[in-house]
Amino acid sequence: MPEHAPDTPLPHHIVVMGVSGSGKTTVGTELANLLGLVYLDGDDFHPQANIDKMASGIPLDDADRWPWLRRVGNWLAEQEHGAIVACSALKHSYREVLLSECPGTVFVHCTGSRELLEQRMLERTKHFMPAHLLDSQLATLEPLRADEPGASFDVAEPPTLVAEAMKDWITAR
After folding, report:
1. 19 or 40: whose pLDDT is higher?
2. CA distance 21 to 96
3. What residues form DSSP beta bridges with 151?
4. Average pLDDT estimate for 115-123
5. What is the pLDDT of residue 35?
6. Contact at 8 Å (CB) between 28 and 85?
């Protein structure tokens, strides 16, 4: 007997990924509204030590990220009706951690030019991530591989259009 009736949509567990300034929060919130899902920002799962480190202009290393990624993945897995979380998920290995905690997760990657990303970061006033860390994030970024469950979306378009395109891709899966 199938776990879900044929006319019942499968739950969606979605990670809106990308470097800082790519619009993960804005697009993720819009996408959650379109799909009727709970949304949280992955930054909310960082321990204070990680936030302090980034606010001081020091990039996180993998040792800082592993426990944080497991917390994000665990929260996502606990949402039986589906949910969306914004999480940088910059490396393939980070996405593997998220998938190990919540199998079936899909990734929607917010992409954009360095100039656009930097402009957005400089315009933010209430975020702990300084704009000068953008280059370290771009250097760390490993785009989605062909065998990963995800798709990339250019965030040069208005957030509502980006979220609509994401919704169309997710619901067509």
Report:
1. 40
2. 23
3. 108
4. 70
5. 96
6. yes
Average pLDDT taken over every residue of the chain: 86
Q: Quick one: how many helices (H) and strands (E) in the chain?
A: 7, 5
**Closest by Cα among 14, 9, 10 to 98:** 14
Q: How is 99-154 classified by DSSP, letter by letter?
A: HHHSTT-EEEEEE--HHHHHHHHHH-SS-SS-GGGHHHHHHH--PPPTTSSEEEEE
Q: What whole-number distance in Å separates Cα of residue 120 and Cα of residue 124?
A: 7
- Amino acid letter, residue 120: R
Compute the distance between CA of residue 83 and CA of residue 15 in angstroms, rounded to an integer: 9
Which two tokens mark 108?
């929607």
Nearest to residue 137, comparing CAs of 108, 166, 111? 111
Taken in order 153, 158, 163, 165, is the CA torsion positive or negative? negative
> 143: which 2 tokens?
């785009």
Q: Is 114 within 8 Å of 107 (Cβ atoms)?
A: no
DSSP 49-70: HHHHHHHTTPPP-HHHHHHHHH
Neighbours of 149 (CB within 10 A): 14
Q: Which two tokens stand for residue 26?
A: 């804005």
Residue pLDDT, tens place only, 131-163: 556 677 878 889 999 999 999 999 889 999 999
* Residue 28 neighbours by CB distance under 10 Å: 28
